Amino acid sequence: MTFVLNESLRSSTLVVMFFWTLKYLSYCNSMSLGNNAGYVIYAGPGAPSVFNCVVEIGKGSKVKYELDKTSGLIKVDRVLYSSVVYPHNYGFIPRTICEDSDPMDVLILMQEPVLPGSFLRARAIGLMPMIDQGERDDKIIAVCADDPEFRHYKDIKEIPPHRLAEIRRFFEDCIHSHLL
User: Fold this and answer.
1) Radius of gyration over alpha carbons of the chain, in Å?
2) What is the 3-state secondary structure (H, E, C) of 106-175?
3) Which residue, among 62, 68, 151, 63, has the nearest Cα to 54 in the 3D structure?
4) Model confidence at 130, in pLDDT bands (50, 70, 90)?
5) Whether 86 is catalytic
6) What family is reported (predicted)?
């Protein structure tokens, strides 16, 4: 696994990259959560600066959930092996797709855990380029746009160094434990 926290990437560059992704995927109608036509989540009217995220895993969880593309339900993928827990809410950005054919991953910094399957508004502040099992698996780092403790952050460089170290260590431990 290769892990790099790209601190030279400005959030404005990230927004341009994210906007290009949304524009490129504009032929997609929506990300459907299940067979019920009422469960359709879009990137949101404020995208790319503020966008919707679907939370798969709540802050503090040892359980890795993921969206089952067939049923549209949140399923248990695995329980993390060690005492590692998700440092913040984790999910994906609807109407995006990455090289691994999954939606774009996002770690959302906020005060409280959110239930899996919920969606919220977020703003990207940075990017963690990652390689997992030889495949590119980048992670967007975002803040909850409606959380008064985190919404003022505009760039990953503003996040306290210890919190960034926690996030980096989480991904190192999580990916490593999955490969065992």
Assistant:
1) 15
2) EEEECCCCCCCCCEEEEEEEEEECEEECCEECCEEEEEECCCCCCCCCCCHHHCCHHHHHHHHHHHHHHH
3) 68
4) confident
5) yes
6) Belongs to the PPase family.
Does the pLDDT value for residue 133 go beyond 60?
yes
Confidence grade of residue 99 (pLDDT, cut at 50, 70, 90): confident
Cα torsion angle, 46, 116, 111, 14, sign: negative
Cα–Cα distance, 5 to 157 (Å, whole number): 11
Out of 65, 86, 90, 153, which one is annotated catalytic?
86
Tell me if residue 21 falls in helix, strand or coil: helix
CATH of the domain at 53: 3.90.80.10
User: SS3 of 88, please?
Assistant: coil
Domain that holds residue 148: 2-179
DSSP label at residue 87: S
Two structure tokens written together for 56? 């798969």
Average pLDDT value for residue range 21-26: 41
Work out how many domains the chain is built from and give that number. Answer: 1
Q: How many CA atoms lie within 13 A of 108 on its CB side?
A: 35
Q: For the CA atoms of 14, 119, 150, 81, what is the dihedral angle to 10 degrees?
A: -90
